[in-house]
Amino acid sequence: MRTIPPDADIELSASDVAVLQAETANSDCAVSNKAGNWFGRVVAKHFGLDLGTSLGMRKVENVIARLKRTGAIVVERRKGRNEADRHKYEFWAPLGTA
After folding, report:
1. Alpha carbon distance 22, 74 (integer Å)
2. CA dihedral defined by 4, 7, 8, 14, rounded to 10 degrees?
């Protein structure tokens, strides 16, 4: 198991988990950090983190990893909500909907 430095860790409240799960249910939250709709942007906005810094990026990645590890979110392979999109991509979804 990887050790997380204390300054890169964020405590997740039940409210934080619920808000982030709702985002994955209500919008396309891509798994890929190269996508414009990457879920990490939602996480960064929620916690007020700067993705332009290595610490901000690490905090976001740690939050996503914790949500995945605890089963709060799962990967779902599907077409995006954009009707013009013909390809399937990996998106985060709340547990029980994938």
Report:
1. 13
2. 100
DSSP string, 29-92: -BS-TTSTTBHHHHHHHHHT--TTSHHHHHHHHHHHHHHHHTTSEEEEEEE-SSTT--SEEEEE
Residue corresponding to tokens 């979804």: 93
How confident is the model over 12-66, as pLDDT tens digits? 999 999 999 999 999 999 999 999 999 999 999 999 999 999 999 999 999 999 9
| 57: nearest Cα among 71, 74, 43 | 43
Report angle CA 78, 80, 82 to the nearest 5 degrees: 150
Max intra-chain CA distance, the chain:
43
**Full-model pTM:** 0.85
User: Tens digits of per-residue pLDDT, 60-82?
Assistant: 999 999 999 999 999 999 988 87
Look up residue 13 and give its amino acid: S
